[in-house]
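Friendly challenge for the regulars: who can give me the structure tokens for this chain first? No prize, just bragging rights.
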Amino acid sequence: MFHIDKQKFGAFISILRKEKGMTQKELAEQLFISDKAVSKWETAASVPQIDLLKPLADLLGVTVTELLMCRRMEQDNALSTAQVEQVVKAAISYSEEEQKRTYHSKGKWGLLYIFSVMIACLEILFSYTNGCITTGLIVSTGLGAAFGIYVCFFAKETLPAYYDENRICVYTDGLFEMNLPGLSINNNNWGKLLNVVRIWSITLMLVYPTVSYIQTLFFTGIWQEIADLFLALSLTLGGLYIPMYIVGKKYH
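First reply, four minutes later:
Bragging rights claimed.
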């Protein structure tokens, strides 16, 4: 398999950027990313997300093919079959490398999720043996586990470029959907929003069973049901959406 030479790739980007008279910060601002990301590309510490290749090539005045080949090509020079195959292999290996890097970046969250599920199961078992199982406990802990398994293992770390070009408040990926009316989702705040959901999911599984058990000791009958509903709404909805809006607006 052909692999992109990160050193050549980074050097090529640096040359093109300087020819355009742009600083790393200016290039980063037009791509809606941090200047540290551009610095990492040019020092061969990392490569751009695959969704950034087209806008990056446009800003630098080259084609995506030239970007992947790490060199300019003559306008009237058609690619040979071997060169076309080389570009295709480069794109495939680029995509595979990016997927692997994204997977490893979520390793710590996966371990925290597994640990939280184990603790939550023990807490629920304790509540069950003491006759303190409530509807709110099952629903809220289940939601935390369901959201957590997606954001800790399968969530994409980067959004497609059109999220940065338009005001979009909805994100959908298979069964997972995030709808935040009034808040524009983009690559500036996406990583922060994912971390909010991850922290919420793990905290909910660790804390909710214990808090639910305690409230059953103080309330009975209709008051217990009211307390259960209030607890579920405040921790499940308020504990998720309020922090998401705060963080989303801050890093917009």
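Residues 221-250 form the longest helix (30 residues). The chain has eleven helices and two strands. Your move, everyone else.
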